[in-house]
Amino acid sequence: MRLDGIRILLVEDEAIIAMTAEDMAAELGCLIVASAATLDEALAAAARGGFDVALLDINLNGVDSLPVAGRLKAEGRPFVFTTGYGASGRDPAYQDAPLVTKPYRVADLKAAIAEALGR
Amino acid sequence: MPDLRAFLAGGGEMARLIRETDWAATPLGRIRSWPQPLRASLSIALRSPSAAGVLWGPDLLFLYNDSWSAYLGDRHPWALGQPVREVMADIWPALESQIRRVCDEAETVNAVDMRLVRNLGGRVFDSYWTYSLLPIGLEDGTIGGVLAQARETTEAVEKARQDHFLLELTERLRLCETPAALLDAALSQLGRHLGAIRTGYGEIDPDGARFRILACWTDGKAADISGDYPVGHFHRAASDPMRSGRTIAIEDGEAPGLLSDEARAKWRSIDTRAAIVVPQMVAGRYGAVLFAHDRAPRSWTAADEALLAAVNDRLWQYLSRARAEAALRRSEERYRRIFEQSNDLIFTADLDQMITACNPATAEALGLPREALIGRSIRDFVSEEGFEQTTRMLRRKVEHGGTTRHEIEVHRIDGQPLCWEINSALTMDESGRPIGLHAIARDVTDRRKAEERQRLLVNELNHRVKNTLALVQGLALQSFRDGRPAEEARAAFQERLAALAAAHDLLTRESWEGATLTQLVEGAIGHHNEAGRRIDMAGAEVTLGPKAAVSLVMALHELATNAAKYGALSVPGGRVALRWTLDGGDRLRLEWRETDGPEVRPPETRGFGLRMIERALSADLGAAVHIDFEPSGLVCRIEAAPAGRAA
Lengths: 119, 647
Description:
The structure holds two protein chains of two kinds. Chain A is of the alpha/beta class.
């Protein structure tokens, strides 16, 4: 299974982790087409579209990113939660959404993106 | 010839004595010459079943019957035919005027329970008499003598007086509330009634070795002897009989051979010669003692003993009651104090869950005065579900008994929610029917909040650890890529980890609430600043949030590492100036300027360090970052948005 050319919206507030995600995405053949570090930026990026899947950090500098998940779900855009809280930190309304816990491995990310895309 | 002495027939012993007496030499003369009225009166007197006699002639010579002889004691038979003023010398002053009235005015005197003070051989005592004195007329109409009939009523009178005394005493004791008041009333009443100089009440220790005189009444002259004594202190020989419940009555302590010299000296020192001591047996044990003392010798009567015993009984009974009540009051007081002062919330309610009583802690917790709480329903302080819960608990207790313990959200009168843990049980009436409930509640709001806070903290800690691990992962990936020599990559990674650890140290010291920029700079690059000559740093006092602080530390670390490797700090004499200001009080401007280093050329590709600086600061501080590779040295300008600081 290849993820070549998959366009990603990266929502992550921690720069170093974002850079790590970028490197991993590159390794998988994906393209980071947009990045957001705050809720407002993320909502704006989600509204603009132009990506195939979103990597969504649940906690953005202390702010819950669920509104972004809501927007993505409403528009039928696939997404993957990333979190340091573990699986229990996921809102019950999104129990089915794929989730990777930090720190994650390339293989984790690959599987989660594939799951989100229904592949 | 009729027998002129026939009137004496059937007159008993006294009639015989009269007949056998030779009256010829007396003012009465031979019996044969006695006038008819005398003979008739004497005949009646001699046959009277009660004490009777005749006083005859100018000297009122006394002739009396058998019954009267018993009253005369050792003056009988001397008294026969003697003038009455000599026979009854002790009471003559009281009688004389009455007898004169009978003789001179021909009046009849009737006296009922008349008090006459007797004096027999120096022994003075009260006696009571009911008597009649009738004139005996002669044929010439003058009064020849007095027919006397008498009955001693001392016993009856004293019995009646005692009954009355005890009745009054009981009335008084009933009104006394404390043991001290009871003793005071009983001892003073008894002392006055007996005309004693001292009365007292003592209790014997359980081991029977000592007794304590709890209270003492005196006539004002005698000494108060309240205090603690060994049993037998006043009269050793009395202690054994008293242990078995016998009264000790001593008429005269000075009587020879009665008291030991030591005891007699004690009696003298308290001015006492006569004493009566009545023990009170308590549950078969010599428990208490009531006593009366007199200054002069005194013959204690059976009535005195009975009176003391009766007072002792009543005193014991009322004392026990007063002590039990006092103990109950103390106990109630103690529990009331616990109730009043408890920090726990204590309240009672009826079966309709109406509050019937509560302690100040409850009133304060609910924000209402106590009076306003009583009569309100528990429903007023809990939600609908809460009331269903308390009702369920009440039903469970009514059906299954026991206590219930549950936690419930309670609302203060101002709406503030509280979390209470309530323990409650039913209150029963005498027949065991539930009539209400009593409850002790503890406000666990703070405990629950602390638990919640604890849970959040643990969660947050987990998040931060994971995040930090992700950061470490990022640093590792970046340090070990690009085919750098392994040695160099390892060194870079270790330094980055050290910088990250230093930033965390700083934040831990500051309780993760942020750190000042000066502290952060010192921590991040202090080790590059040889003796303070290489890096010149100055700026305003600014506090950064945890996340911004970590990013800034990492950025400064990368700048310093870069400078040490390629820039100003890589040659001797190279310097760095680090300046920061707060624009408009809120916008942070920071400039890193290297000088006197090797000539600088812009690199073809930017390494992880510089990339990270730009990314991290823009993300975490909301900062605009400009890195210029000026020929004189690298310049990094950071302009941070206000929001970046609070994070």
